[in-house]
Amino acid sequence: MRMEGYSGKNQRKVAIIGGGAAGFFAAISAKQHWPDASVCILEKSNKFLAKVKISGGGRCNVTHHCPDIQELAKAYPRGEKQLRKAFHQFSANDTIEWFESRGVPLKTYPDGCIFPLANDSQVIIDSFLKACKQLGVELLLQQTISKIEPHTNGVRLVQNEQEQFYDRVIVCTGGQPKLSNLYWLEELGLDIIEPQPSLFTFNMPKNPICELMGTVVSNASAKIEGTKLTGRGPLLITHWGMSGPAILLLSAWGARILAEKNYHFHVLVNWLDDAKEDNLRVQLEQTSQAQAGKKMSNWNPTPLTNRLWLHLLERSEINPDLRWSELGKKGLNRLVNTLLNDRYEVQGKTTFKEEFVTAGGISLSEIDFQTMRTKKLPQLSFAGEILDIDGITGGYNFQAAWTTGFIAGKYAFDPEKAL
């Protein structure tokens, strides 16, 4: 829906605090919907879109192939209900159309992740910078905001120690690793949810599994012992522990639970994903008969790499030189249990440096998701990871940024009210 901007003698001013994904989308949306307004982006660092640049290994997973809004919303451990409503205004399909209509062709991969066809995040950055230039959005770097004070008809900012007034302010400062980074917003009387890391890998110090770093299991499942949390998908063994979508799913859905455990817990790995115990037992018994004279180290009946197979034999207390005919019932039971229920101690986490994603931020109860304005202070809006919204890996966090940024800009002003 196109909303006409208000043209008056005193040009209305919109400030977007934060020059990241949500900030640029909010600025472009605000200027498109309110062309007569002055729109600027205030970025505290010396670089715009830094997280976009490095995301996805420098490729930028812009969204996920999920036309069904109900299904799309299920990818968010925090924010599902609110985003289900918001996606009706700007969905994953809208994201695809937005970029491709601006000369950025996209490619959908088998896992549903969508990247620029160029496989380079710079094309995303260039499209934003080009749109801002065409629309007349002012881009300002090294802007420190030390005070934000809403008034009846606007917002007062202390910007680089200078007092500035704006009619509307949209805060898009991204996920914050520390609660202290949000005190300046808490002073406004807004409810703040303490931030916790959401997407992170599991550290397993000095565990022999780390010697298999680089090994990938295409289909595995992992559970947090003592909980109902389960993650399925590829699992990657690293030099510090475990990573990959199966682990990242666990960290996202279990962000708060694992924080309460101080990141010290046990993870149970099913190396064969959906394999059932009875079926696996039959398969291994048949292998014992068919390959009776072969050493177990030389005959791997699973889709796992030989390196991992040997590691799992050792964990099952099975001599790799043992012949299949010599496995016996006890050995079979240990092997089945290891393949389907392998237990590892986790002591700590590793986040992706600047790519970190957080659970926490501005409480969703503070926000009207029809407009992205705060219910208490309608001249102030929020978009992106500053909100208590986070998605699983696969382009979902960027989609939330595009959607909330688009809505915040679209409703910078009330279409029926001329200020």
Could you explain the architecture of this structure?
The structure is a single chain. With 419 residues, this protein is of the alpha+beta class. The protein has 2 domains: 13-197 and 353-410, FAD/NAD(P)-binding domain; 200-350, Translation factors (Elongation Factor Tu (Ef-tu), domain 3), CATH 2.40.30.10. The protein has helices at 21-33, 50-58, 69-73, 80-86, 92-100, 122-135, 183-186, 245-253, 255-260, 277-290, 306-315, 328-340, 396-410; strands spanning 13-17, 38-42, 63-64, 106-108, 113-116, 138-140, 145-151, 154-159, 162-166, 168-171, 192-197, 201-203, 216-224, 230-237, 241-243, 264-270, 342-347, 349-350, 358-362, 367-368, 373-374, 380-382. It has a 7-stranded antiparallel sheet. A 5-stranded parallel sheet has the order 6-2-1-10-22, with helices on one face. The radius of gyration is 25 Å and the shape is elongated. The model is unreliable at 1-9 (pLDDT under 50).
List the main descriptive attributes of the protein structure presented here.
13 helices; single chain; 22 strands; 419 residues; five-stranded parallel β-sheet; alpha+beta; Elongation Factor Tu (Ef-tu), domain 3; seven-stranded antiparallel β-sheet; FAD/NAD(P)-binding domain; 2 domains; 31% helix
Provide a brief overview of the structure:
31% of the residues lie in helices and 24% in strands.
